[in-house]
UniProtKB/TrEMBL annotation:
Residues 5-32 form a coiled coil. It comes from the Bacteria. Keywords: Coiled coil. This is Prephenate dehydrogenase.
Amino acid sequence: MHAVIEKLNENLKVVYRQALDADKKLDELQQQGHGKFKALFTEDAGFTFDAKRFKPYVLDVAADVEALSNNDELDQQKLTLAVTKLQNLLKLLATFK
Protein backbone atom coordinates (compact mmCIF):
# COMPACT_ATOMS: atom_id res chain seq x y z
CA MET A 1 0.00 0.00 0.00
CA HIS A 2 2.80 2.41 0.88
CA ALA A 3 4.36 2.00 -2.58
CA VAL A 4 1.09 2.89 -4.29
CA ILE A 5 0.66 6.05 -2.20
CA GLU A 6 4.29 6.98 -2.82
CA LYS A 7 3.86 6.62 -6.58
CA LEU A 8 0.68 8.69 -6.52
CA ASN A 9 2.51 11.43 -4.60
CA GLU A 10 5.37 11.39 -7.12
CA ASN A 11 2.88 11.84 -9.95
CA LEU A 12 1.12 14.60 -8.04
CA LYS A 13 4.39 16.53 -7.77
CA VAL A 14 4.84 16.35 -11.54
CA VAL A 15 1.23 17.31 -12.20
CA TYR A 16 1.42 20.19 -9.72
CA ARG A 17 4.39 21.78 -11.51
CA GLN A 18 2.72 21.33 -14.89
CA ALA A 19 -0.54 22.75 -13.51
CA LEU A 20 1.16 25.92 -12.29
CA ASP A 21 2.70 26.48 -15.72
CA ALA A 22 -0.59 25.74 -17.47
CA ASP A 23 -2.51 28.07 -15.14
CA LYS A 24 -0.04 30.83 -15.98
CA LYS A 25 -0.68 30.26 -19.68
CA LEU A 26 -4.44 30.25 -19.08
CA ASP A 27 -4.14 33.58 -17.26
CA GLU A 28 -2.27 35.04 -20.23
CA LEU A 29 -4.87 33.71 -22.68
CA GLN A 30 -7.70 35.11 -20.62
CA GLN A 31 -6.03 38.54 -20.52
CA GLN A 32 -5.93 38.40 -24.33
CA GLY A 33 -9.67 37.73 -24.43
CA HIS A 34 -9.43 33.97 -24.97
CA GLY A 35 -10.31 31.12 -22.66
CA LYS A 36 -14.02 31.70 -22.29
CA PHE A 37 -15.10 28.45 -20.65
CA LYS A 38 -16.75 27.38 -17.42
CA ALA A 39 -14.60 24.44 -16.41
CA LEU A 40 -11.61 22.43 -17.56
CA PHE A 41 -13.34 19.08 -17.09
CA THR A 42 -16.77 17.66 -17.80
CA GLU A 43 -18.80 15.94 -15.09
CA ASP A 44 -17.68 12.46 -16.19
CA ALA A 45 -14.01 13.22 -15.31
CA GLY A 46 -14.61 12.29 -11.66
CA PHE A 47 -14.47 15.76 -10.13
CA THR A 48 -17.43 17.10 -8.13
CA PHE A 49 -16.78 20.78 -8.86
CA ASP A 50 -15.94 23.12 -11.73
CA ALA A 51 -12.82 25.27 -11.97
CA LYS A 52 -11.19 27.34 -14.69
CA ARG A 53 -7.67 26.49 -13.57
CA PHE A 54 -5.74 23.28 -12.97
CA LYS A 55 -4.56 23.89 -9.40
CA PRO A 56 -7.93 23.22 -7.69
CA TYR A 57 -8.15 19.88 -9.49
CA VAL A 58 -4.63 18.94 -8.41
CA LEU A 59 -5.47 19.85 -4.82
CA ASP A 60 -8.59 17.70 -5.02
CA VAL A 61 -6.57 14.67 -6.11
CA ALA A 62 -4.00 15.42 -3.41
CA ALA A 63 -6.78 15.39 -0.81
CA ASP A 64 -7.95 12.01 -2.15
CA VAL A 65 -4.42 10.59 -1.90
CA GLU A 66 -4.05 12.01 1.62
CA ALA A 67 -7.30 10.31 2.65
CA LEU A 68 -6.05 7.03 1.17
CA SER A 69 -2.78 7.27 3.06
CA ASN A 70 -4.58 7.86 6.36
CA ASN A 71 -6.47 4.57 6.12
CA ASP A 72 -5.00 1.31 7.35
CA GLU A 73 -6.35 -0.57 4.35
CA LEU A 74 -6.38 0.58 0.75
CA ASP A 75 -9.93 1.40 -0.35
CA GLN A 76 -10.02 0.12 -3.93
CA GLN A 77 -12.94 2.33 -4.98
CA LYS A 78 -11.28 5.51 -3.66
CA LEU A 79 -7.99 4.48 -5.24
CA THR A 80 -9.66 3.98 -8.61
CA LEU A 81 -11.29 7.41 -8.40
CA ALA A 82 -8.01 9.11 -7.45
CA VAL A 83 -6.14 7.38 -10.29
CA THR A 84 -8.88 8.29 -12.78
CA LYS A 85 -8.74 11.94 -11.75
CA LEU A 86 -4.95 11.93 -11.98
CA GLN A 87 -5.07 10.35 -15.44
CA ASN A 88 -7.58 12.94 -16.61
CA LEU A 89 -5.34 15.73 -15.34
CA LEU A 90 -2.29 14.25 -17.07
CA LYS A 91 -4.16 13.84 -20.37
CA LEU A 92 -5.46 17.38 -20.38
CA LEU A 93 -2.12 18.86 -19.37
CA ALA A 94 -0.44 16.88 -22.16
CA THR A 95 -2.84 18.24 -24.78
CA PHE A 96 -2.55 21.74 -23.33
CA LYS A 97 1.16 22.00 -24.14
